[in-house]
Amino acid sequence: MEGEGVEEIFQRRPSLGWAACACVFTVMSLLTLAILWPLRNLVITGANDFLSFYAGARLAGTSDLYNPAQAQRVQFESADTSSQTLPFIRLPYFAAFLWPLGKLPYLAAYACWQILNGIAFLLFLRLWPLQPVWAARFLACSCLGIGWSFANAQDHTFLLLWIAASLYLLRQETHSDGQLSLVRTPYGELWMPSRDIAAAAGMFVDRQEGTYQPAWSLGPVMKLTKGAASE
Prior knowledge:
The chain is built from eleven helices and five strands. The protein is of the alpha+beta class. The protein folds into two domains: 162 residues, no CATH class; 51 residues, no CATH class. A five-stranded antiparallel sheet has the order 2-1-5-4-3. A hairpin with a 4-residue loop joins strand 3 and strand 4.
């Protein structure tokens, strides 16, 4: 259609947009591979950040979860290598999430972890709700940091998925009832949808007091007033 932009074309023909994303991602992956080629053995054998995650998986539910010496012992016994700089440092719930991987041999667990990373990244691309959608997808696929995250077996794709899922739920709730809560914070005012969706986005909710507390913050509780989305 005359005058139609790239975003509009991909909105009308999503398969074309996904093909373009795949091409961009392939090119950037090859570039990342070229940069990391001298370190290829570390990527192939999993002698990277996955050592930390695997130690957490094996030590989940024990008092040694944050014991660096025990983490090194697990790493050396499982992967024939270890690192003093890679103890498990995530929260305990993440170790519980990783627990099934700890039941697998190291290389099998490493392969499953990379597959999960790939699934998380695809779900992030699929769920990202903010416009322009395709521009955001292209930026994500062209980011060298994503390639580095895969090469180093990090967990950034899960963080991206969490953000996209939270925004998606927020948007769905906003569209469903048209109501937002005005969140007053020491840093300004934010409009957010219902308390249930805010909880899904990582907020502690006090239903009696009508307040939100950020799950990642020790700062002041945020006071709420009700308002319309149209404002």
